[in-house]
Amino acid sequence: MKGEDFIHLCQPDACKSCGACCGLYNYADSTRKFLTMKLRDRTKLFRETVKVQADLKAFSDAIKNRESGEKLYEVIYCCEYLGFLDDDEKRVGCLLHPFQNDGVDMRDVSFYGVELCNGHFCPSYHFISRAEKLALIRIIDDWYLYGLCITDIDLVKEYFRFISEGIYEVVHPDRLKGRLRDIALDFFSFKTSWPFRSPDTNRFGKYYFDGSQYMISHIDYDALGCERSRFDKIFLSLTSRFKNLEELKEGEEIVRKNIDEFIACYTMGVTGDRMA
What we know:
This protein is mainly alpha-helical and 276 residues long. It contains twelve helices and five strands. Helices cover 45% and strands 5% of the residues. The chain has a three-stranded antiparallel beta sheet with strand order 3-4-5, with no helix packed on it. The protein has a two-stranded antiparallel ribbon with strand order 1-2. The longest helix has 24 residues, at 245-268. It is globular and about 60 Å long. The chain starts with 31 loop residues before the first helix and ends in an 8-residue tail after the last helix.
């Protein structure tokens, strides 16, 4: 996958990164506050106690003893060596990586090891197009939201599909600034602010877990008395649960208004800050 067109989704720039493959969002409590405290604590302890590779066993034991091990999906390993890579806490990543340790690669002590860490590319690398990757990198500058969205293939592709159908072309990433970027950021921020989010703690996007296996959730449109929504994949990505037809219609209106606003602004060539 390397080459001139390669886009490193894990560490795209200095403003954000993704730690999902290291189990970042696999904790029973995967809220921003909880994960920030966890990563901050690990990073502080690592920098204070790990000087040479021989110190890693004590670090690993300390983290496992002080952290709750409750996970969404038992099969996915949550790596204790995931932390913040910068003092501003903008990027998450591997504390064992040679870029973090004066060129010394300590990843061979981790659960996955050097070879797997170097060679693993999540499905988003393969299924999200280059234009969609660049667009999302332009839109989001926040490690927590970026990781949630870049790994949600349905959410990314469905949003840009609806928009492309409205503007009759692929969204050009260079256009995503000012008001257009704000509109798109509003949409992807639904990942954390969606009003119809299921309260179930074992839900993550379209998946739900029982600890040992995962299943894909579905919205019971028959019970709501309507046909399958055209925004069904988006609703599932947002962990939606609608109590009645009125809530479904309200959800559809929220998504539709965002897409329509983006299409109108893109078509008119609107740039600059959002108007009041």
